Model the fold of this input.
Amino acid sequence: MNDDFLYTRQESPAPEFVAELQERLGHVDSPRKAKRKNGQKTFAWKAAAAMFVVTVLGLVVFSQERLRTSIINIFVDDPNYDLLAELDSRYGFELPTVPSRYQLSSVRNMTSTSYAASGGYSVEIHWQNSDFTCLLELTAELGFYPWTDENNLPVEPVLEENQILLNEHVVGTWYTPIDPVPSIRRRLVWWNESAISYTLDAPTTCMSLDEFLAIAQSTLSESP
Amino acid sequence: VTVSEADWDAVFQKELPRIYNYFLYRLNDKGLAEDLCSTSFIRAWKSRDSYRQDKSAFSTWLFTIAHRVAVDYFRKHHPKIVSLDEGILGEGNPEIIYQERAEKILLGNAIAALPEREQEIISLKYGAELSNKEIAELLKLSESNVSTILHRTVKQLRGIMMQQGELSHE
Done:
C-alpha cells in the first residue's frame, strides 16, 4: 500500500529553534555533574529538605498505611531503564549513583477500592532506604505497561507528590490496565490469586527477581 | 557506558529532526512540537550520564523519554485540530502553497482524530521514521502487532484523504 502521502507532514525544525535549544542545553548540567560542582554541602541541604517533605507526608498517610496488609515483597536487580530524570525534574532531588542491587517493594491487590470493580490492579512501589533511583527503575524492570488511570485511560507511571512517604516507603501507586499484555497479566494474576494471605519476610540481602519468584512460588505452594 | 560529550553533537543533529517530527505529527502544532522537543532533549541531556549502551540504542532511550513527555502532555490535553484558514500562507504561488498546506492540515487533522495508540504509532513511523521493530520495542507491542495496526491505520487515513480530495485513487 502506497503510504508516501503520510510523509508529507514532515518539516525541518526551524533553525532559530535548533540554535536556541543548543544554547539552552549548553547551560544545563547533568545531576551528577552539578553534584560534583556543588559538593556535599548542596546535597546535604537538599537531602534535608527532601527528608522534611517526606516526613510530613509520611505522618499524614502512615496511619492509613498501617491498616493495610503487605502482600508480597520482591527484590529486583538489573535495572532496565533510567527514570531518574523524572524524579529529578519533578522534585529537584540530588539522586544517588545507580546501585547494582535494588530494594524492597511490594505489590498488592486493590480489591478494597472502587477501582477493583473495573478489574484493575494497582502496584505500590516500596523501598527500604532512600534510594529513589531503584524505585523508578523497578517499574521499568517489571514492565508494567501500559498503565491506565482510574478511567482506564493510558497514563505513564508518574509519581504524585502526595504518594511519597517516609515510614511506609510508598513512592507511587500506578494502575495496570484491565487487559494487560499476557506476560504481565500472568504475573499480576498470580500475585492476586496466591499472595493475599502471605507476607514474605524480607531477606537480609537483596536477590534477583527470578530468585525471589522461585522462593515465593515455593513458599506459596507449601502453604495450606 | 555513557554518551560522550563528543558524541552529543552528532546525536543532536541526527535525532532532533526525528524527535521534532514525532511531536509535530503527534501534536499537530509547530510551537508545541518545539516545546516538547525541548523538554525531551533537556531531560535526556540532564540524565545523559545514566544512559546505558548495553541496555538500548541511544535513539530508543531518547524516544522513550520523548514518548513519556508526550504521554504526560496528553494526560491534560487533546491533539489540536487546525482550521484551513489558520496561519500565513507565505511566499510563492499562493495556489500551490495553499494546496500543500491544505494537504498537511488535513493529514494532521486526520491523524489527530485517530485513537491514541494509532496516533502514536503513525507519529513514530512517519514523523520519526522509526522501524516497526523500534516502535514495537518502545511501545511494548509485538512487531507483527505494530505492522497490523499500521496497515489498518494507513488504509483508514488513505480513505479519509481520498474523501477530502487530497489523494487520487491509485
User: Anything to note?
Assistant: Chain B has a mean pLDDT of 80. The first helix of chain B runs from residue 5 to 27. Helices of chain B lie at 5-27, 30-46, 58-74, 94-112, 116-127, 132-139, 143-163.
